[in-house]
Amino acid sequence: AQSVAQPEDQVNVAEGNPLTVKCTYSVSGNPYLFWYVQYPNRGLQFLLKYITGDNLVKGSYGFEAEFNKSQTSFHLKKPSALVSDSALYFCAVRDITGANNLFFGTGTRLTVIP
Amino acid sequence: EAGVTQFPSHSVIEKGQTVTLRCDPISGHDNLYWYRRVMGKEIKFLLHFVKESKQDESGMPNNRFLAERTGGTYSTLKVQPAELEDSGVYFCASSQNSGKNSPLHFGNGTRLTVT
Fold first, then answer.
1. Which residue among A51, A94, A104 sits closest to B43, beta carbon to beta carbon?
2. What is the pLDDT of residues A70-105, one digit of tens each?
3. For B31-96, what is the HEC assignment?
4. Which residue from B minimizes the CA distance to A3?
């Protein structure tokens, strides 16, 4: 069975500080991993993905994420948070050998404090 | 290019009524997905179309939900009769190919409230 856990419902960080949004996953086979962001009254926007290769992937708006197979994690990071980064972040996984649909976490609300 | 569009953006109906949600995918995208997020919970898969065919409908909660994609273009999701637990945000997404490394493009969602 496939699942995603985002242990923090809410993350607060001061503007200019580094941010981390945590994600762990469970799949039977190898994972494809994704991060999406949802701004108020908008749909989900794709941020970045891990397919294969380098464990550190870079995406839109200065975000990056590190794939850690031993810890089954794919935490989202940014070196310096902006107020405009405040949004709802979703981690998602696909099993390479499984169904085509994405499995999402419950989301983490990031608030960047000026 | 135009993104995935969903209509309506909000819908408030009474229990027992019928509601139809519409999704227009990005032009040329054969793959169309429906997802739902109930308040505070994860976004859950409902079903997947490839063109006009249902590829996977394992996430459809029960037979009160009917999805169609006639002609392989836009899709509708009908809930009949609606129940209180159907409230949530319904997202539609599309992708050009079925590759599992392809990200999905999401619409803004339809917020359904059943009272």
1. A104
2. 999 999 999 999 999 999 999 999 988 777 788 999
3. EEEEEEECCCCCEEEEEEEECCEEEECCCCCCCCEEEECHHHCCEEEEECCCCHHHCEEEEEEEEC
4. B42
